[in-house]
Every structure is written in structure tokens, then in C-alpha cells.
Specification:
The complex is a heterodimer of chains A (357) and B (273).
Chain A: E1 3-8, H1 9-19, E2 24-27, H2 35-48, E3 51-54, H3 58-70, E4 75-79, H4 81-86, H5 88-97, E5 101-107, H6 123-127, E6 138-140, H7 145-162, E7 165-171, H8 172-176, E8 178-183, E9 209-210, H9 217-237, E10 241-244, E11 251-254, H10 257-272, E12 277-282, E13 284-286, H11 290-297, E14 302-307, H12 313-321, E15 326-331, H13 340-356
Parallel strand pairs in A: 2-3, 2-4, 4-5, 5-7, 6-7, 11-12, 11-14, 14-15
Antiparallel strand pairs in A: 1-8, 6-13, 10-12
Chain B: H1 6-13, H2 49-63, E1 70-74, H3 82-85, E2 89-92, H4 98-108, E3 113-119, H5 120-126, H6 128-136, E4 142-147, E5 150-151, E6 157-158, H7 177-180, H8 186-190, E7 196-203, H9 207-225, E8 230-236, H10 240-243, H11 247-261, E9 265-268
Parallel strand pairs in B: 1-2, 1-3, 3-4, 4-8, 7-8
Antiparallel strand pairs in B: 5-6, 7-9
Helix pairs in contact in B: 2-9, 5-6
The chains are: A alpha/beta (357), B alpha/beta (273).
Chain lengths: 357, 273
């Protein structure tokens, strides 16, 4: 068993980064995730020699990620919504050049400068592409501080396995809350780098270059086919989700991250009042757990999707359910966190009272 | 004593020079750097300064024995394909971000040499922030800055370094400084920063200038070896295609118009630091 500590989400994320043998972090301060860089600036270099670098902007930070990842280093950046928007161009290049790296978006309410309060309104941006071109990120959605830690390790593993950027999509509440966490043991930083990394031309070998430019459309289509095949493999092998009380469920509550965590409480309230409610919480938002929704859709009376946005993941839930059952949405926006009571009330109003009409 | 003309020379050597003899080592007057520059046709327009700049820099890399020690960053612009010609490990950066990419490469591999190769649109417009901050942090990298005062790859739009009054496709009546701002002297702007070790402005439009530019590139890599800080070699260059000139005319333009505004020579050396 690893160390047990009481930690703030953002600091736990930073601690996990050091322990995961990360080589470098490049970031720019933005609320509500500035603790990440602050923590690393205090700790990382002394403990493992890991570089913690404050860039001049998020635009620079993501391109530094490109540069260091291109040298085969294990690298990570974090930001929050407006900053993550600035990183989208760089992410598209990283995805195209197939450079593994890990990002965390500690989401705040938008659009625009918005608010510094927690939100889940960047689902579309994270899951559907965000930048230009056909590409996908591996997206992990933690609902606890413990998962912030675990998903750093998992995120690096998946990113490196697929040579693809991975993202932890969390929010200001998980980033700021304190919870007990079990930390994994310190992993060594790597000393051998991948065979594609630009670490200086080796004698007798071809030079290596990292690029996303392929002027010939046939060549670019070939690259696209390769990427799509990779995403398909992720869909086959990497879907992760949590199911609770679904065996006997008449209704399903669903959501991701903090939204799902609040749904758990609402599910308990429903159960106490005699309604058989279960819960599905996707851990990977891409690849999306399509099958579990499709299977449940065939046998439950309805699904209530709860998010801290205007209804984003619900589109994927509806596509997965494919009209087999009713899918309703309840959301709060702009940094407002829904309470279990209002979710329960909405469930009663929509499915129980509405269902009697 | 009058200089010999080409005709004199031709008649003098007639009969003594054969197709085979001109390839003999002792008769070579021009040679591509053998291993550092890839033997392939370049996409650059005839007469463009890029190919000369590529060649002399790759000569320097070969002569200093750095082929295995150096990592380059290509920009967006005409030299986007620099990695097709330079036989060293390279990364292709997003438009303007070469200094950020170069910073990261150097920071994770401080024992290696790092250079960026950027044009004026890339470095002095969209990438100004990354350039200034890399310079100000004293990043121990070499920035090769090709300044031809125009956007080449997108076909002749106004660059931040276009001269006042210069006609481009987006300043068809000449660059009007009251509306379109003044040409930016990036080298002079960066030189005062304490992190900057070496800034020099060179050109490749005449043989002597090519030699001087090569020397400057050599010095810059030597300074990088000595960890002196940020080095930039600006090369004032031409763009025959977009200036709608012959290569010779475009080099005359460099001589007569560009260099008076962008004077050649060292702007800062480590001794001034």
C-alpha cells in the first residue's frame, strides 16, 4: 500500500505527476488550477529532477509540450477552460504528429472569461476534437481526488501505448477539494527513449523528424486512416466506466466526474423512496462506453443525464441509446453545482409524475 | 593589371579541362556539405537565399562535428520543409512557435545543440511573443532568422519587416506606415535584453557576405557550447518570385534598399553583455 495523505485535488495531481516519473511540466497560471505549477515548482526538481516550467502563455506551453514530447520525454501540462482553448491548435498538431502527452483541464464556467467556479462545459471541446481536423484525445473524467492521482498514471500509460495525447477532464471543485488519497510509489524517470524521438541523429541511421505536414492529399488521407484505425482500437480496448445498482434498475442516472458523484447521492434518495434507480459513470469520455447505454436502453424505463453544462454528454448517451428509451437531461451552468435534491426532484417530475400523465 | 575575363579564362583552360578533371578533389571550387545536407532538389525558387543559408549552416554543423548533437526546429513558411534538406533530427513547429518548441527541446536535453530556422512572418509577426520570451529567458539556443521583408509561401503579402512604401499584395499602394505600422527591427529590439548573448545581422546576397554569415553561424554555435545564452543570426535575404524580380534584381534590392534600413554587422556580442 502506498502513502496515505489528505490532499487537495490539484496538489494530488501534481504529486502524482512527480511519482509517475514525468520528465517535464510546462504550464501557465490560471484559476482554478494554479496550485499545480506552484506545487511542482516547490517539489519536482529537488525530488526527481523533473522540470517545472512557467511558460509565457498557454500557447507557448502546449508547443513546449510538443517539443519535449518529440524528444520522447514524459510530459504534462494543465490549464483551465480559457487556457485550454488557447492550447487547441497545438493539440491538433500533437495529435497529428502522434506525440504522447498528458493534459488536465480543470474546467471553469464559460463561455468567455466566464467564472472561476467549477463547470463541465468543455466536454464537447475535449471529446469531439477541439482543434482543427479529425483527431481524438483519450479523455478521462475523475470524480474524486483519488482518481486525479490514479488517472495521471493511467493517462501516461494510455498516451504512450497509443502515441496519442490524453486528457484528464476535471473541474474546479475536484481540483480544489481535499480528500484522503493513496499515492502510488515513486516510478523511475525513463533513461531510454522511443525510436521515433528526436534526440540527435544516430550514426548510420536515418535522421528523425516530427511533423504534421503532408502536402500530398493522398499521403494526408493515409495518415488520417492510420489515426482513425488507432481511435477504433481505443474504442475496442480502452472503454472504462462504473455501473452501480443497474441489475434491477428501472431508471438510470448518468453523468461524468463531479456530476456523477452528485447523482450517486440522488440515486440513494430515490432508492430510499422506493424507486429502483441505477447509475452509470463513464470514466473514459473518449472512447465512450456506448454499449452499456445501448444495453441498458433496451430494458430501463428512462435515463436521466446530469451535467454541469447545457447538455453535452447527453448527445452521446442519446446516440448510444438510439431511441430505445427516454433520455432526459438536467443541468446547471456557469459554475453552479446542482444539488442531489434538485436532481431527485427533476427525476420525480420528469419520469414519475410526467410518466403518469 | 586588368582582371581576366571569362573569355580569357575559357580559352586558357580549353583542352586542359575535361568532364572528369573538374570533379577532381584539387579542382573543386564548390561542394555541398556531404552528409549534413541531403542530396535532393530543393523546392526553393531559383536565386532564393534560403538554399544558401541552408548550405552554409549545414557546412558549419558538419565542420563542427555536431550532426549527432543538434536538433533543429523548422517554422511555417517557405522553409517549412527545412527538415527535408538538413540531415539532422528536426521538429516542425506550429506557425510562430519555434522558439517555444526549441526552448523545450533544450530544457529537456541541455547537453544537445538546438536551433530554430524561421522567416520574418513566423518570427516577427505571429511568433513575436515566443521569440521575445525565449530571448529574455536567455534560452541557450540559436535562432536563424531569415528576413526578406515579405511572406513567401503565401505569395507576397506584407510582412512586419516589409520596408516603408514597399508594394506587396496586401499593401498594393505601398506600405503606409501611418496605417500599417513601421518595419520591425527585431534584432535591435532583442539586443538590449540581458538574456541575449549574440545578435548579428548578415546577408547571403554576395560571396563575401556568405562567408561572413557562415562565420556568424559558427560563432553562435560556439557561444551555445559555452552556454552564453540566446543567440540570433538574422540573414537579410531576397524573394525574387514575390518581389517580381530576377534573382540578380532581387539581390540588388537587398543591397540598395534592405541593407540601408537593416544594416549588417554585430549588434551585440557576449563581450557587450
Amino acid at each position: 500500500m502506498g502513502d496515505l495523505k489528505l490532499m487537495k485535488g490539484n496538489e494530488a495531481l501534481a504529486e502524482a505527476m512527480i511519482r509517475a516519473g514525468c520528465d517535464a511540466y510546462f504550464g501557465y497560471p490560471i484559476t482554478p488550477q494554479s496550485e499545480v505549477l506552484e506545487y511542482l515548482a516547490r517539489e519536482s526538481e529537488q525530488r526527481t529532477g523533473m522540470l517545472a516550467f512557467q511558460a509565457e502563455s498557454e500557447v507557448a506551453a502546449i508547443n513546449m509540450i510538443y517539443g519535449a514530447a518529440g524528444c520522447g520525454r514524459r510530459v504534462m501540462t494543465t490549464s483551465s477552460s480559457p487556457g485550454m482553448s488557447l492550447m487547441q491548435e497545438g493539440l491538433s498538431y500533437i495529435a497529428s504528429a502522434e506525440l504522447p502527452c498528458l493534459l488536465a483541464n480543470v474546467v471553469r464556467g464559460g463561455p468567455g472569461l466566464g467564472t472561476i467556479q467549477p463547470s463541465q462545459a468543455d466536454y464537447f471541446q475535449s471529446v469531439k476534437g477541439g482543434g482543427h481536423g479529425d483527431y481524438k484525445l483519450i479523455v478521462l473524467a475523475p470524480s474524486t481526488v483519488q482518481e486525479m492521482v490514479d488517472f495521471v498514471k493511467l493517462g501516461f500509460e494510455l498516451a504512450e501505448k497509443y502515441r496519442n495525447p490524453a486528457m484528464i477532464l476535471t473541474d474546479g471543485a475536484v481540483g480544489q477539494m481535499m480528500e484522503p488519497v493513496e499515492l502510488f510509489d515513486q516510478m523511475p524517470r525513463r533513461t531510454v527513449f522511443p525510436e521515433w524521438a528526436t534526440t540527435g541523429k544516430k550514426p548510420g541511421q536515418e535522421r528523425r523528424y516530427i511533423t504534421s505536414l503532408h502536402i500530398q492529399s493522398e499521403k494526408m488521407e493515409e495518415i488520417n486512416h492510420r489515426l482513425q484505425a488507432k481511435y477504433k482500437k481505443m474504442e475496442e480496448n480502452e472503454v472504462r466506466y462504473v455501473e452501480m445498482n443497474t441489475e434491477d434498475a428501472d431508471y438510470i442516472f448518468t453523468g461524468f466526474g463531479l456530476g456523477a458523484r452528485i447523482c450517486m447521492k440522488a440515486m440513494q434518495m430515490a432508492r430510499e423512496n422506493g424507486f429502483k434507480v441505477g447509475l452509470v459513470r463513464p470514466i473514459t469520455l473518449f472512447p465512450f462506453p456506448t454499449k452499456v447505454y445501448n444495453d441498458l436502453g433496451a430494458r430501463v424505463k428512462g435515463i436521466l443525464d446530469v451535467e454541469m453544462n447545457a447538455g453535452q454528454m447527453v448527445e452521446d448517451v442519446r446516440l448510444s441509446v438510439n431511441g430505445q428509451t427516454k433520455v432526459e437531461f438536467y443541468g446547471r451552468m456557469g459554475g453552479v453545482i446542482p444539488s442531489p435534491e434538485e436532481i431527485y426532484e427533476h427525476f420525480i417530475k420528469t419520469f414519475i409524475e410526467g410518466g403518469k400523465k | 593589371m586588368s582582371e581576366k575575363t571569362f573569355v580569357d579564362l575559357e580559352s586558357e583552360i580549353e583542352g586542359t579541362v575535361t568532364r572528369e578533371s573538374i570533379c577532381l578533389e584539387e579542382n573543386l571550387i564548390y561542394q555541398k556539405p556531404i552528409d549534413t545536407l541531403i542530396d535532393t532538389p530543393m523546392h526553393y525558387c531559383p536565386g532564393c537565399g534560403h538554399s544558401t543559408a541552408h548550405k552554409i549552416f549545414m557546412e558549419v554543423v558538419a565542420e563542427m562535428g555536431l550532426q549527432e548533437e543538434i536538433i533543429g526546429v523548422a517554422p511555417v513558411g517557405c522553409s517549412v520543409f527545412a527538415y527535408h534538406y538538413m540531415n539532422v533530427d528536426m521538429q516542425e513547429a506550429a506557425h510562430g512557435r519555434a522558439c517555444a518548441v526549441g526552448t523545450a527541446i533544450k530544457r529537456v536535453m541541455p547537453e544537445k545543440y538546438v536551433f530554430t530556422y524561421q522567416g520574418d512572418g513566423d518570427l516577427a509577426a505571429i511568433g513575436t511573443a515566443e521569440t521575445v520570451h525565449a530571448a529574455n529567458r536567455g534560452e541557450n539556443i540559436l535562432v536563424i532568422f531569415i528576413n526578406n521583408g515579405i511572406y513567401g509561401m503565401t505569395s507576397g503579402q506584407m510582412a512586419p519587416t516589409s520596408l516603408a512604401g514597399m508594394v506587396t499584395t496586401t499593401s498594393p499602394y505601398g506600405r503606409d506606415t501611418s496605417r500599417q505600422g513601421y518595419p520591425l527591427k527585431i534584432s535591435e529590439m532583442l539586443a538590449p535584453l540581458p538574456g541575449v548573448a549574440y545578435v548579428t545581422r548578415q546577408s547571403v546576397h554576395k560571396p563575401n557576405n556568405v562567408k561572413r554569415a557562415k562565420k556568424a553561424l559558427q560563432k553562435a554555435l560556439q557561444y551555445q557550447k559555452e552556454k552564453r545564452g540566446f543567440c540570433m543570426v538574422e540573414i537579410v535575404s531576397n524573394c525574387p518570385s514575390n518581389m517580381k524580380m530576377t534573382p540578380l534584381q532581387s539581390n540588388q534590392f537587398v543591397e540598395e534598399k534592405m541593407i540601408p534600413f537593416y544594416p549588417l554587422g554585430d549588434i551585440k556580442t557576449p563581450e557587450d553583455k
